[in-house]
Amino acid sequence: MSELNDLYQDVILDHNKRPRNFGRLAAPTRTASGDNPLCGDRLDLEVEVRDGRVEDIAFTGAGCAISTASASLMTEAVKGRPVAEVEALSERFRTLMRGEGPAGEELGMLAALSGVRAYPMRVKCATLAWHTLRSALAAEADTVTTETE
Ligand code: ZN
Asked: Whole-model pTM?
């Protein structure tokens, strides 16, 4: 199990150091901002949705290693997928973070964040990107905060 933890830690460190899909899109159709005041994480998300599919996605912002890695992993996980699948994946990730059930193969590298569950404060760092994505897909314009749940 510790080997797996090491792998997961490597994934998080790598995505924090070299975040994927970091930047801005030329033609976003949805945007949302997220804020986790408990940690000081901020996230601006841009999504290009075409024909019910997440064609492209990018983020900017500043936060801790967990929030950056989670946003990076999320963009890789959802890019190119139909919105319905993205919503289902979002729900499965939320279930994982609540500690209700195993990671499951469909989560892929998102499971790297499962270790965060032992640290309730850090769970919000990991879920910030997904809160923000849900807000973007729901076309809610306002900044979301992890403190509304
Ligand atoms: Zn954080």
From this structure: 0.89
Q: What is the pLDDT of residues 92-130, one digit of tens each?
A: 999 999 888 766 777 888 989 988 988 888 999 999 999
Which residues touch 7 (CB under 8 Å, ≥6 apart)? 112
Which structural domain, as residue segments, surrounds residue 54?
A: 2-143
- Domain for residue 84, yes or no? yes
Q: How far is CA 17 from the centre of its chain?
A: 16
Query: One-letter amino acid identity for 33?
Result: S
148 lies in some domain: no
Residues 106, 30, 113: CA angle, nearest 5 degrees: 30
Residues of the chain below pLDDT 70: 1-2, 4, 102-103, 140-145, 147-149
Ligand 1 mean position, distance from CA 126 (Å): 7
The CA 38 to ligand 1 mean position distance, Å, reads: 8
- For residues 36 and 84, give the distance between their C-alpha atoms in angstroms, rounded to a whole number: 26
| Structural domain count of the chain | 1
What separation in Å is there between the alpha carbon of 133 and the centre of ligand 1? 17
Question: Is residue 109 within 8 Å of residue 27, measured between CB atoms?
Answer: no
